[in-house]
Amino acid sequence: MAGGSEREDKVSMELTEEILQSMEVGLAFRDYSGRISSLDFHKATSYVVTASDDESIRLYDVSTATCLKTINSKKYGVDLVCFTSHPTTVIYSSKNGWDESLRLLSLHDNKYLRYFKGHHDRVVSLSLCSRKDCFISGSLDRTVLLWDQRAEKCQGLLRVQGRPATTYDDQGLVFAVAFGGFIRMFDARKYEKGPFDIFSVGGDMSDANVVKFSNDGRLVLLTTTDGHIHVLDSFRGTLLSTYNVKPVSSSSTLEASFSPEGMFVISGSGDGSVYAWSVRSGKEVTSWMSTENEPPVVKWAPGNLMFATGSSELSFWIPDLSKLGAYVGRK
Fold it and tell me: 119: domain CATH number?
């Protein structure tokens, strides 16, 4: 399989602190007239999708550095967006304050394939299962809903006490729901029995923002509005480290992302900057300052030495090989 070997080649240059410190913007799209609220990489192609406060959904091909499509969602607005397994089909949440349906949209022909109705307040968390056609959403209405992409009605409902953050693990066997200082782990096949484990994040009771597993499922991170990024062992629930950035406002989301092999965490900050830490040492590796004062959205590209940030512009960060003397002339 050609795609597989290409991806292995890309990762053969192992991510180190030195490479991370060399990273800078290699490509940027600056034609937004509102802040980017969400971005997602497709797992199997070079496509990226963004949602922005200018009410646009945009599809990019990173390999050709082009914007393939811009679709306006003037009626509903757009807040969170995620790829399905199909590279031109997305699920997105609205941002208009009156219709909280989620929508399955074909970017190819700008057609709505399905509406998912059930939430009664802003959806603040959306996670798709990479192995099956199911997804999970969390809302300020204090519910977490489980969905099947093929059905308009939700398949399950969990009530929470607070703003929920939700995510599936890479295998789709487990999902996590975080709120009120704890991460609750559920078996996706028997979630109605309640969580099989509950992990404390050390007394941080501020609102949960995002929760994510590392690719190998061994680690889980949680960000909160107080500007804390907690990293835990996802099997034992041990709190391994907490990184601190500037707090964010209740209308913003502090986003963080594991690097593909789970060795580093990158995160936005309430002062607009981006930070990187080593999971092993818990120490800050580098940071990139910004003139903006809202946390950027940040996502690491799957299986690549690249991450993206979204603020008033969309930026792709790659290593500057000229700064890496040791790597020049070496495969």
Answer: 2.130.10.10
* Partners of residue 50 on adjacent β-strands: 39, 58
Report field, pTM of the whole predicted structure over 0.70: yes
- CA 241, 218, 50, 206 torsion-angle sign: negative
21 Cβ contact partners less than 8 Å away, ≥ 6 residues apart: 285, 286, 323
H-type alpha helices, the chain: 2-11, 17-22
The distance in angstroms from the start CA to the end CA of the chain is: 22
Q: pLDDT, tens digit, for every residue of 28-47?
A: 999 999 999 999 999 999 99
* pLDDT tens per residue across span 189-209: 999 999 999 999 999 999 999
Would residue 9 count as lying in a domain? Answer: no
Structure tokens at 237: 């629930």
DSSP string spanning 55-73?
Answer: SEEEEEETTTTEEEEEEE-
In a domain, 87, yes or no: yes
Full residue range of the structural domain in which residue 96 is found = 17-317
